[in-house]
């Protein structure tokens, strides 16, 4: 009887906590697709994990499908979508005079703030579409590429950016969104164009830099998240901490993946866009990533200074939000 009472109390406390969380969520996005509740995102991710587990088994006795034309269209379409997201986030951030160092979320119905919120939603939705990467691997029977890193990245990005779109659809969330979408333009355009054949592949000069740019993205995001603690900024503390933890997990998984695969001098697989063949190469790539990260961070800090000189801080039209959201 006591156990049942304790369980009931825990369930009630959890429900109250969830209700409180949604009471401080962004009201502007509440009616948007998949935003009213966390259940759609959880169901999508659960279905994705089920596909990863049982999909290869269903394909076990089937021949791999040849999906080259479809994959070309898919990759170039994803590249175009990410280009749109990158452009929209930069355009709105510039119009609003956003800081590249740390920017408060303004829950306003100002057209540019709504544009930013909409762009964050599209970024979240793009992560659902990108689960097709895994579908193609399964249908083509490329099961060796269904690594923990691959699955973790696709599954968690949906959940992480559901939180981003529902609670912080703007502010400092724009920067990781903008950089990630830019990198995805490079990645997916490479995959789409490379599938056209050798005559096109020889013009894709950016292939060797993709891994270094990806690593630099994580390091850059981590740098800006950490330094935001030293800047007066009302971006939610809990989101800063969550972002730092997520970036650290991705960096650790990327480093572990490459060291395990290439530390014994194994040649890279044809499908890999990473040219790392030993531990020293990994170190070399990380060193270059730090160098790129430092250069890019200096660029954005300079850009931020210019923005703050020429653009007044955007003022909230609706500042009736609960103050506690920033302290959590």
From TrEMBL:
Catalytic activity: a very-long-chain acyl-CoA + malonyl-CoA + H(+) = a very-long-chain 3-oxoacyl-CoA + CO2 + CoA
Membrane association type: Multi-pass membrane protein
Record-listed E.C. numbers: 2.3.1.199
Biological processes, Gene Ontology terms: fatty acid elongation, monounsaturated fatty acid; fatty acid elongation, polyunsaturated fatty acid; fatty acid elongation, saturated fatty acid; sphingolipid biosynthetic process; very long-chain fatty acid biosynthetic process
GO function term, MF aspect, one: fatty acid elongase activity
Keyword Membrane on entry: yes
Transmembrane residue ranges: 151-169, 181-197, 209-231, 237-259
Superkingdom of this protein's organism: Eukaryota
GO cellular component terms given for this protein: endoplasmic reticulum membrane
Alphabetical list of InterPro entries matching this protein: ELO_CS (IPR030457), ELO_fam (IPR002076)
Record's keyword terms, sorted: Fatty acid biosynthesis, Fatty acid metabolism, Lipid biosynthesis, Lipid metabolism, Membrane, Transferase, Transmembrane, Transmembrane helix
Top class in the EC scheme: transferase
Subcellular location: Membrane
Family indicated by similarity: Belongs to the ELO family.
Name the record gives this protein: Elongation of very long chain fatty acids protein
The organism of origin for this protein: Ramazzottius varieornatus
Protein's gene: RvY_09256
């Amino acid at each position: 009887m006591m156990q049942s009472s304790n369980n009931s109390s825990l369930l009630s406390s959890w429900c109250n906590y969830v209700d409180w969380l949604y009471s401080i969520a962004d009201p502007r996005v509440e009616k948007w697709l998949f935003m009213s509740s966390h259940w759609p995102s959880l169901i999508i991710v659960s279905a994705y994990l089920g596909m990863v587990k049982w999909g290869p088994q269903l394909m076990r006795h089937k021949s791999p499908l040849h999906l080259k034309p479809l994959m070309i269209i898919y990759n170039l379409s994803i590249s175009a979508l990410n280009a749109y997201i990158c452009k929209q986030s930069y355009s709105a951030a510039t119009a609003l005079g956003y800081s590249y160092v740390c920017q408060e979320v303004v829950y306003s119905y100002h057209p540019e703030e709504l544009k930013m919120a909409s762009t964050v939603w599209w970024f979240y939705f793009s992560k659902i579409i990108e689960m097709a990467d895994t579908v193609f691997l399964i249908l083509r029977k490329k099961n060796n590429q269904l690594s923990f890193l691959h699955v973790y990245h696709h599954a968690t990005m949906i959940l992480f950016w559901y939180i981003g779109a529902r609670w912080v659809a703007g502010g400092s969330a724009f920067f990781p969104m903008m950089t990630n979408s830019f990198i995805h333009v490079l990645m997916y355009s490479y995959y789409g164009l490379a599938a056209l054949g050798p005559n096109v592949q020889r013009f894709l000069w950016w292939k060797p830099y993709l891994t270094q740019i990806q690593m630099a993205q994580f390091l850059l995001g981590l740098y800006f998240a950490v330094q935001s603690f030293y800047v007066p900024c009302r971006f939610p503390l809990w989101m800063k901490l969550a972002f730092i933890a997520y970036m650290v997990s991705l960096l650790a998984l990327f480093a572990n993946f490459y060291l395990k695969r290439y530390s014994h001098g194994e040649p890279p697989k044809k499908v890999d866009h990473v040219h790392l063949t030993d531990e020293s190469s990994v170190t070399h790539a990380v060193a270059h990533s730090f160098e790129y990260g430092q250069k890019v961070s200096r660029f954005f800090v300079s850009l931020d200074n210019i923005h703050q000189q020429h653009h007044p801080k955007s003022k909230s039209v609706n500042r009736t939000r609960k103050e506690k959201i920033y302290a959590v």
